[in-house]
Design a protein that fits this description.
Belongs to the pyruvate kinase family. With about 475 residues, this protein is α/β, with parallel strands linked by helices. The protein has helices at about 20-30, 45-60, 110-115, 175-185, 200-210, 220-225, 225-235, 240-245, 255-265, 290-300, 310-315, 320-335, 335-345, 355-365, 380-390, 400-405, 425-440, 470-475; strands at about 10-15, 35, 65-70, 85, 90-95, 105-110, 125, 130-140, 140-150, 150-155, 160, 190, 215-220, 235-240, 270-275, 305-310, 370-375, 395-400, 415-420, 445-455, 460-470. The protein is built from 18 helices and 21 strands.
Length: about 475
Amino acid sequence: MRRLRNVKIVATLGPASETYDMIRALHEAGADVFRLNMSHGSHEEIREKHRIIRQVEKDLQSPIAILADLQGPKLRVGVFANGEEELVEGAKFRLDLDQAEGDINRVCLPHPEIFAALKEGANLLVNDGKIRLKVESCGDDFANCVVTTGGTISNRKGVNVPDVVLPLAALSEKDRDDLEFVCGLGVDWLALSFVQRPEDVEEARGLAQGRAAILSKIEKPAAVESFDEILKASDGIMVARGDLGVELPVSAVPPIQKRLVRKCRAVAKPVIVATQMLESMIESPMPTRAEVSDVATAIYEGSDAIMLSAESAAGAYPIEAVTTMNNVAIEVENDPTYREIIEASRTQPRSGVADAIVAAAREIAETTQVAAICCFSQSGTTALLIARERPRVPIIAMTSLRGTSRRLALSWGTNCVIVSEVSRFKMAVVASARAARDLGYATNEDQIVVTAGLPFNVPGTTNILRVAPCDERLIFNMEAE
């Protein structure tokens, strides 16, 4: 399905978007990737959503990526005898392992790992940071705190611990069960929550066994500090600004977002900017101007994808939310300033042959009348390298592997076409010309750039580039190969 913009849109599915008609309408409105939130819904409900997405994909003959977002460990306080208590600034409050119901003075925090890592002076954030506690003294089973920001604390509210690396695995037992289930279904991406270190990513990769690509959610200060190593271990990144804004000063989040997006682009790995992008559209058919500016900023930065969460999962206007994102993206990408920013932030090519080929393809497209860049890519690596270049012309990724075409639905500007395996470069050029014409990017009078690797169908062998006509008669009149 041809898009009029390059940035991709991720839409979360939920109660407001679980029928065939709605999921199809969301895809037609602009959703390229559907996110399945494993924090909500049974396996049977997830299975049904997966089935519907694949049916929409088949009916529209349009590759769709499915992203399964694992819940990660949830840190929560226990329950209160009165259901809730009002904590005032300056008051003392104790967290401990005692399972007794809480009161105005204390509550259970059933996570001994937290107490094992806490230090005097550490901060604890409750209920998305609305309540802040500072540790005055602590031990293996308690933390005596002072309330630095008061508020209402109630049953099972979430707890964030921003100042320490917790000795917790990113994958809980539920996550392991969910991972195996969704890999068995055939999802394309796994979003890994609570990442603190590269070892968390490697654990998930070992369990996935190549059945899905691994996307690390950056939502903790420890992940920001170890980002280079986490990026190296991951196939993609999600900048999860909601939790980052809780555990870090909100003023720190925008520069972190910009820095992480650039680092991802430099190594040709997809990056999603997520959380609260069009939050008001949960209840309103129109976004705020600030939200539109936020979406535009992520696009100007060169993000591969922007994401809707509750807006499409549980909101009253899911189609309008996707349409709004789509329209903002089209406007931004048609702005001359967008090209100036994207090209000014382009990194220098690396030393490999494939890097040189894709850089040359982009330069040819910018200096001649070329309608599209077509690349044959079995693993998807070449397509990602071309996407890193952010060319001014469409990218058409040709692959015989359906899984590759689906995973690339998350990558900037990439239009995927399933083709039969080819053994001769001339047939690769013919297939590219047909795809460019069929997608409406070229006519017989146009030229395209074709990249491929010899021998064919072997990942990592991109070593050839040709400027070719779209007229098949001219292609077959070329010198025999």
